[in-house]
Each structure stands twice: as structure tokens, then as C-alpha cells.
């Protein structure tokens, strides 16, 4: 690890001032940044410790939403009774990520910024456009079983690793950030970027902006929601495919058994947390049957660009979407 300066910020203005230093980075739980520093992937000149900032609360918003402080720990958020009742998919997504020890340290704000687990990104001997712009991509033609099939570019097709962010995408969360220029609110769908030809730029967050909170809108359909993760091991593994879904099926004579409301997002298969808008469009008003769910999955996966190593993800995604929605259909009937 390279030498760096350490600053512990007592409040938000002090944190914003300290991060204005070129090469400075915020340190929350440290569960990703410290690994990256140890491996010489990240080398901030100054680490600004923000763990003393008062951004840890989970609070009710008027109208039924929730505000999660950026420094709330993952385990604290997953156990919050209101969150578990109103947004079960989010609690399940968090509990499906990492290990209990990591969830006790990792923060919500940090989770939004965690970086890919592409093996070549961590191997400094391998070419990687994300680590070194313009260097090339060693994964192309390499081992790509865990890589993305949606949102890929010729410059990078690394999968986004977060579980939490997949649920946030399905819920239309908003990320609140602050800098010396003021407060900005970023819809979650605009927070993470597709790789395009600049895969090293992963979010729309500026270097001097601090994530202060994540807001969840009031969303009654989310009470009937689920996060389903398929992975190589039963725990402590990244998703091959994950699905965050919420569903409401109509009752009454006119539209009984039809999809009245649906939220769907995918993880493990895309370069950013992937809101499945094509599938949602296909599902609205359709009969809530396995056949419709499979048809919607096919609509979403029409643009998939798999490699021979990860082509299995297409069928696995399709089946996971169908199983998740079928389970929710039974619960909402
Ligand atoms: Fe780097 Fe992306 Fe290629 Fe992986 S897929 S080696 S992260 S450019």
C-alpha cells in the first residue's frame, strides 16, 4: 500500500473541505476501498474518514417513504422494521450480500460506489480499461463466466457487483449528494453509468460530492416484493443472476389475474444495476402467468450480448424472473 494522509472529519462542511484536496477520497466502512488500496488499484493521496458524520439514521418521510442515511450500516438497514415491512426486497438484497461481518461495517453510501469484481481489474499485470483508460480489456477472450450480458461495450463488460443497488433500481430510489456548491438529488437510474468508451467513469457523482442519503419513495406495491439471487455458493458470493421484483395482480371481474403494477430489476448480468423496463412494459396488463413472465423476460433479454462462457445467463435470467414473479403472483392473489 502506498503512503497516504489521513483526516477524520467532524462534520459535513469539514469533510467537503478536506475532499477538495486533489486525490482525496472519502472512507466509510472501508470494505471495498481498503482492499483496492492494498492491491494498489486505488491510491488516494488523502483519505477523509467520514464515519463520525451524523448520517446514520433511517427515518420516515412524509407520505410513507423512508430516508436512509448514507453512513447507516447494511446490517442496521436490513433489520429496520419499517424497511422490512414496506420494502422487503431491499432487506433481502442486503442480507444476500457479503458476510455478516462485512454487512456490519459496510455503509449504504459505500455500497453505491463499490467497484467491479472482474478478475482482470484486480490483476495489475492484465490490461484493463477501467483501471487504466485506453489500456485494453484482458477479459475479452479471457475467462468471462461472471461477466455482464446487458449494457456491455467493446471497452468493458464487467458486471456490477451490488445486490442493494438492484433493489434500489427497482424501487426508484433517489440519491442525495452534497458539495460546497449545494445539495443535488440524483435518481438511481442516473447514478450509475454504462461503460461506453469511458468505463473508468462509473457514476455521475463528482469527486468532491458526498453521498448524504438515499430516499425511498412511498410505494405500496413494494410490500409484495422479493429479491432472488442465484450464485455459485449459498452465501458470500456475487450473483450470477439476481432479480428484484414487486408485483400487484388485479382483482375484480374486468381485469382479474392481470398485472396491474410491476417493478423489475436485474443484477449479476449487467454493467450497472439494471431496471428491466422492456419486461415491465410487456407485463403491464398481461395475464399473471408463467407464460407472460417468460415472454417479458425474453423482451428484456433481446439485446443481451453474451460470450460463450456466460451464455448460460440468458436462460438462467429467464427462469429466475419467471420463478420470482410466479412466487409474488401467488402471494398477491
Ligand atoms: Fe477491465 Fe472491464 Fe475488461 Fe474487466 S471487463 S478487464 S473491468 S475493462
Automatic annotation (TrEMBL):
This is Xanthine dehydrogenase family protein subunit M. GO terms for molecular function: FAD binding; oxidoreductase activity. Transmembrane segments: none annotated. Residues 1-221 form the FAD-binding PCMH-type domain. Keywords: Oxidoreductase. It comes from the Bacteria. The lineage of its organism: Bacteria, Bacillati, Actinomycetota, Actinomycetes, Pseudonocardiales. PANTHER family: OXIDOREDUCTASE (PTHR42659:SF1), XANTHINE DEHYDROGENASE SUBUNIT C-RELATED (PTHR42659).
